[in-house]
Structure formats: C-alpha cells, structure tokens
C-alpha cells in the first residue's frame, strides 16, 4: 500500500464474481442492466476475470447473447435502448474477459458465431454493439483456425463494405481489421480468390474515398490497419516473384515474343518458309539484344533467377501493353544508340523489379507496430505495375543523365534506389504526385544532396586529426553514457503486446536517480506527463542484473505465437535476466528507445554501448568537436607529420630574466 493513501476495504474478487454471477441472472431488467454494467468495468482486472471464469461465467455470457434476441424480441419495441445497452455491456464484458487469454477461443459454438455475425450483417445496429462484434470476429479469426473457417462462412466482404462507408473511424478501423484477419488467415490457394472479391467489391476505391481522402486525420490504429492491408496485397505478388520461368513453356515464351512484336512491329515480318528459318533466328537474336536481354539466344534464361522470377516479365508485359508509346520509345532509343551507352531494357526491368520488391518488403509478414502505409498505392487497382512503369522510365532518364555504360549498371541502380526511397518518404498522395517528386530528384539533385551530406559528415583522415579524435573519444563516450542514464532516469512507457492491439495495456520502467534500482509497474493508460514514483510498485536492484539479452535470445521471443516470426518486433525486443530464471521482458516502442535502453543497461553493467545510435551520436559529436577545435586553422593546410625540431642555438644570450 502506497505511503499516505487511504486503505479502503472492499469485497474480494471471488465474492464480487459470485455476486455478479447471480445478479446478471436476475429477472428484473434494471438489476440485470446494472449488473452487466459493473461486469463490463470489472472484467478488465485479471484477478476478477479468473474468478468469474472459474464460475463458468463465459458460457453464461454466450448463452445470454445466443438467447437474448429471442427472449427480448417482444420487449425490444418498448425497451429498445435498454436492450441495446444490455447487449453492449454483455459483449464488452465478453471481450475484456477473453482478452486475458485464460480461455481458448476454440470452445465457442456455431450458434454464438452466427449470432455475432448477425449483429455485423444487420444494418442500423447500435455503434457499440457493432464495434464489439467486429472485435470478437477479428479475435476469433486470428486465434483459431477452426473459427476462421466458421466465421468465413458466416460473413462476406460484401456485408462488411457498408461499414466502411460510414463516418465513424473506429468502426471503419475494426472493419478493415476483420478483412485483414480473414486475408491473413486464408489458405494460400484462397488468398488470390479473396483478392479478386475485394477488387470486385471495389474495396480499394471505397477506402480511398471514405478513409484516406475523408476530411479527418487518420489515427495510428487506422494507419496500422491500412499498412497491414497494403502489405498483404503486395504479398500476393510473392508467388510470381518466386516462380522461375520454364524455358520449355510455350505460353511463357509467347510473352517474350509479344514484347518483341510490340517493339519492332513496324519492321516487316519475314515469310515463314523453311529457307528463312536461319534468317528469322538471327533476326530474333538481334531483336532480343536490342531489347536488352543478357541471353540473346534464349531470353527465357534471364527469368530463372528468383526473386524476381516471372514477376519481372509480368511487369514488362504490363508496361508494353498499357504504356506502349513509352515502351517503344525506350527500346528504340536504346537500340539506335552506340553500344556502350545503351540502357538494357530487359536487364534493367529484372533488376528494378527485384529492387522494388525489396523496398516494399514483398513476402514479409506485416509488423505488429508499423503504421507506414502509402496513400498512392490505394489510388490504382494495379498499383505495383504502375509503380514499376514510373520507375523504369526514371531508370532510363537517370541512365542518360549519368551518361552511363554497361559497366556503370550497379551505380545507376543505386542512384535510382535513392531517388525512389527519397520520393516515397514524402508520402505522395497519388502516383502522379510521386512522378512529380521524381522529376525534381534528378541525378544532379541527388549529387547535390550527397555532396551536402558528405560535407556535413566530413571525415578528416590525416594523422594529427586521427590522434586528436582518439584523445577526445573517451570524454564523448562518457557524455553519451550520461545522456543514456539520464534518459533511463526519466523512464519510458512500454506496451504489453497481446493478440489484439487496440486493447493496449501499458507498463512503465525507470531508473532511480542514484542508478541503483529499476522501478516498474503497470499503468491504466499511456501517461501524459511525469509518472509519480509511488505508482511504480515493483523494483529490481541493478546489482541483481545478470545479463541483458536482445532479439531471438529473449525468453518472450522464444514462446510460440505470431510475435515469434515477426522480424520488426524481434528487432525491438530485449530482456533483463536476474536471479535464477527470472526475467523482465521489454518490447521498445521504437528503434530509438530500444537503443537508449540497451545502451543504458549495458553502461550500468560496465559493458560497451554497441548500438547504432551510439555510433551515430559518437560520429556526430566527434565531428562537431573536431570542427570547433580546428576553427582557428581555417584554410591552413595541416601537415601529415609534425614539423622538425630546430637545432639548439649556439648560445643562450637572448634569454633574460624579467625580474
């Protein structure tokens, strides 16, 4: 009990649970409503939840939901608000109780699923009931394979779409979360079919109109769900990306013939007589060379590397068919150039497709914490192909600006990657805006940016300066160490990751001002301002810490579950090991906090601070300190070796005593 607080005696969780269990079965509507209201607020407490669940409370709630509508059908007309509130409190209590992870999701009946699905499918449903129902459906799909199949039968994308067209952002968020969950858990063979249904129902344009371009800010949770949808959509390309071309497959070879036909159609086709067979072969070889393939005789061999596999060929065909003028111009422009300055269209397309897949992380699972979605990808049904078409034209333009030859291929690809990455960070709202950003990021502009960055991080390599650096480094490291420890004293709020992100639970950890103890404790919500010391009940003496482990070595990352395979969560995880088999597990809110905490804990244990942030801070501070110390030497050449010591003078007559 905190010092100075008033000790209030209240009923125990077991007694509370027993009383509420009886009260929610009361025949009086008012008493029942009051009991359900209390249950909804008390269910957040894990001790109470455990006691209530032990009394078989969950099955009582599910029975109430299943039978509720029939039983109160007559009363509904007279007491509609009361009925709506009762159902809302019942579902809220159910969501809170299930969120503790005590009961398995697999135990629910089809009747219960149908009832929850009916609340979602019915129009004009109370907002709070709809919100809880969507949350329950999402959790069912994510936590149980059997329930995924049952929910998928009960609910269709068509029934979810109307909820996106409303104005309540929270309902829209829950709806997209359910669609994402169905998408994520769908078997591989069903995913493409589901994507086709989403396209048919115009999900993308509905999200663009009612969510992205709605006249209100997008909150973090909505941004996260849009990011997940973006990742899952791009992951549909993984199958083509990992498929090698079969040189014997006629249909696939016909695509290459089609690329050749569109580019060189103007030239007269030779007759199909046997005499012209050789001539035709040599002409094809010449055309494939003009198209920029590495293997002129059999271009199919160029598509046997995965990634990008067949995805590169799909992109090339899309560009040739939908942007025909640009395609013909690029191919003919390069085939008429001198050999050494031509930009090979085939090779460029294959490498560019691979690079774009890396940038968009095609094939990787969505992160639990990221909300980095790009509005422009929601503006077109074939956004990846259109993205490729813009970038292949950029590559050709950059190639000309750099006056590159085939030896410079990798340099050109690096510049193009930088141009694309810089344009994406500005989050253009449409593909046209993205194109405009790229227009402004010409090769000359990239050179200027690189030059200014180089100037800022100027690295002095002469020996005297390196010696000066070595001399200054320990005091700068000490400065960084103090900053890290001061940040640990301020403390950080960490999120407890559970299966449903929206039910966020927080805990806070901070170092005592004397650097001897770590104080930590649970919080109800994300703190605004400073957290009082007495609210952090638990403590861990620094002297008891045995080790700090990160990433895959953390105990909470070895547990089974979705987090285990999530790369980004792995990168933010660290644990403090103390006593025998005890640990304190963390998942940092972002990379910056992760570096601060791992550095600070290592500093407390007398180990080196190894994080990327420390390296960057050290470079920046060293560079600034050296520049400050060398200010007086502006425009003076610093010699590599110290000047020679002059010979001793023949006499010391010039020495005189000031006294």
From TrEMBL:
| Keywords for this protein | Apoptosis, Cytoplasm, Membrane, Phagocytosis, Phosphoprotein, SH3-binding
Q: Where is the signal peptide?
A: none
- Supply the Pfam families for this chain: ELMO_ARM (PF11841), ELMO_CED12 (PF04727), PH_12 (PF16457)
Alphabetical list of InterPro entries matching this protein: ARM-like (IPR011989), ARM-type_fold (IPR016024), ELMO_ARM (IPR024574), ELMO_dom (IPR006816), ELMO_domain-containing (IPR050868), PH-like_dom_sf (IPR011993), PH_domain (IPR001849)
* Main localization of the protein described in the UniProt heading: cytoplasm
Q: Where in the cell is it found?
A: Cytoplasm; Membrane
Q: Where does the ELMO domain lie?
A: 251-424
The organism sits in which domain of life? Eukaryota
GO CC, sorted alphabetically, is: cytoplasm; guanyl-nucleotide exchange factor complex; plasma membrane
Name recorded for this polypeptide: Engulfment and cell motility 1
In its UniProt entry, the species of origin is given as Ursus americanus (American black bear)
């Amino acid at each position: 009990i905190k010092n100075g607080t008033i000790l209030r005696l209240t009923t125990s969780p077991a007694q509370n649970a027993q009383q509420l269990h009886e009260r929610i079965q009361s025949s009086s509507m008012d008493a029942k409503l009051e009991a359900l209201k209390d249950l909804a607020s008390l269910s957040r407490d894990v001790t109470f939840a455990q006691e209530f669940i032990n009394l078989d409370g969950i099955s009582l709630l599910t029975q109430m939901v299943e039978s509720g509508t029939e039983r109160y059908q007559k009363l509904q007309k007279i007491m509609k608000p009361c009925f709506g509130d009762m159902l809302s409190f019942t579902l809220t209590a159910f969501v809170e109780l299930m969120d503790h992870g005590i009961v398995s999701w697999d135990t629910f009946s089809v009747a219960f699923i149908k009832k929850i699905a009916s609340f979602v499918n019915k129009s004009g449903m109370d907002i709070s009931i709809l919100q809880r129902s969507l949350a329950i459906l999402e959790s069912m799909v994510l936590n149980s394979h059997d329930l995924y199949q049952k929910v998928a039968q009960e609910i269709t994308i068509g029934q979810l779409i109307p909820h996106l067209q409303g104005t309540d952002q929270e309902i829209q968020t829950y709806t997209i979360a359910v669609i994402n969950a169905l998408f994520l858990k769908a078997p591989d063979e069903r995913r493409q079919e589901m994507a086709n249904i989403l396209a048919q129902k115009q999900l993308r344009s509905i999200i663009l109109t009612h969510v992205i371009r709605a006249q209100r800010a997008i909150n973090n949770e909505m941004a996260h769900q849009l990011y997940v949808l973006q990742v899952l959509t791009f992951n549909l390309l993984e199958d083509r990306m990992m498929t090698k071309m079969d040189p014997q497959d006629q249909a696939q070879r016909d695509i290459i013939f089609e690329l050749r036909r569109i580019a060189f159609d103007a030239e007269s086709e030779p007759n199909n007589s046997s005499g012209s067979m050789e001539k035709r072969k040599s002409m094809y070889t010449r055309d494939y060379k003009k198209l920029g393939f590495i293997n002129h005789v059999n271009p199919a061999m160029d598509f046997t590397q995965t990634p990008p596999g067949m995805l590169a060929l799909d992109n090339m065909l899309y560009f040739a068919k939908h942007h025909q003028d640009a395609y013909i111009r690029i191919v003919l422009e390069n085939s008429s150039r001198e050999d050494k300055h031509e930009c090979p269209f085939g090779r460029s397309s294959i490498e560019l497709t691979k690079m774009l897949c890396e940038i968009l992380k095609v094939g990787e699972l969505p992160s639990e914490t990221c909300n980095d979605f790009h509005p422009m990808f929601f503006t077109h049904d074939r956004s990846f192909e259109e993205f490729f078409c813009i970038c292949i034209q950029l590559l050709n333009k950059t190639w000309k600006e750099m006056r590159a030859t085939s030896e410079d291929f990798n340099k050109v690809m690096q510049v193009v990657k930088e141009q694309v990455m810089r344009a994406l960070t500005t989050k253009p709202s449409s593909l046209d805006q993205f194109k405009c950003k790229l227009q402004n990021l010409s090769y000359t502009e990239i050179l200027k940016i690189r030059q200014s960055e180089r100037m800022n991080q100027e690295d002095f390599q002469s020996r005297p300066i390196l010696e000066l650096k070595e001399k200054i480094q320990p005091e700068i490291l000490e400065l960084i160490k103090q900053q890290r420890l001061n940040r640990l004293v301020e403390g950080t709020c960490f999120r407890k990751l559970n299966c449903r992100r929206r039910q966020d639970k927080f805990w806070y950890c901070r170092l005592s001002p004397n650097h001897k103890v770590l104080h930590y404790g649970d919080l109800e919500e994300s703190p605004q301002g400073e957290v009082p010391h007495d609210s952090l009940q638990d403590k861990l003496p620094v002297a008891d810490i045995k080790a700090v482990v990160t990433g895959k070595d953390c105990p909470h990352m070895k547990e089974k579950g979705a987090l285990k395979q999530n790369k980004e969560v792995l990168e933010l995880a660290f644990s403090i090991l103390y006593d025998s088999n005890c640990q304190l597990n963390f998942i940092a809110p972002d990379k910056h906090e992760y570096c601060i905490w791992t550095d600070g804990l290592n500093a407390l244990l007398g180990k080196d601070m190894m994080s990327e942030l420390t390296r960057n801070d050290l470079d920046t501070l060293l560079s600034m300190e050296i520049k400050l110390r060398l200010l007086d030497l502006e425009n003076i050449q610093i010699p590599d070796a110290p000047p020679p010591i002059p010979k001793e003078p023949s006499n010391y007559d010039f020495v005189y005593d000031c006294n």
